[in-house]
């Protein structure tokens, strides 16, 4: 499934950040790595900036666990209001012109806010059912469902296999 390039990458960063924010032991380097994994050009992130970005990640997580499109829309609108997104076209680091939702002078926290809120807004408008959290008990990884049929329940094949094997074994014992 191909999403709007900005929405796709922004939504993926949102999913990764929402998952990372569920942990207590996250370093600033890990926060930076989440953005860099999706081609965000980022400076060093200080501990206080990382803490603010992780607090944002906890808000993002609520979007992934929302049960209805209406709830997702309301949550993303709240994020957009905080992010105060103002679209502009940027061209930097040898890249072709592309859309940014933060000003050129925005700090790293504002950039994470704008990128993730904008990405989720695109996705919620196009395919709101493609946001989810892994159905394996105890996992909780947020994901963007890029599968062809849009019915993904697990964050990975590994989690899906673990649940399916456990279900199979339970049926064998009961039968």
From TrEMBL:
UniProt domain Zinc finger CGNR: residue ranges: 130-172
Superkingdom as given in the UniProt entry: Bacteria
Name recorded for this polypeptide: CGNR zinc finger domain-containing protein
Source species: Amycolatopsis echigonensis
């Amino acid at each position: 499934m191909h999403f709007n390039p900005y929405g796709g990458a922004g939504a993926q960063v949102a999913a990764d950040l929402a998952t990372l924010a569920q942990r207590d032991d996250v370093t600033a380097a890990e926060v930076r790595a989440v953005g860099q994994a999706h081609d965000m050009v980022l400076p060093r992130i200080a501990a206080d900036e990382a803490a603010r970005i992780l607090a944002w990640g906890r808000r993002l997580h609520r979007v992934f666990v929302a049960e209805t499109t209406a709830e997702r829309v309301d949550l993303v609108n709240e994020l957009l209001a905080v992010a105060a997104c103002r679209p502009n076209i940027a061209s930097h680091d040898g890249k072709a012109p592309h859309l940014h939702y933060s000003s050129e002078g925005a700090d790293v926290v504002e950039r994470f806010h704008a990128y993730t809120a904008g990405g989720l807004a695109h996705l919620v408008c196009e395919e709101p059912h493609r946001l989810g959290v892994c159905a394996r008990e105890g996992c909780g990884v947020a994901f963007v469902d890029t599968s062809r049929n849009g019915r993904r329940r697990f964050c990975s094949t590994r989690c899906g296999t673990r649940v399916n094997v456990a279900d199979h074994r339970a049926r064998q014992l009961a039968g």
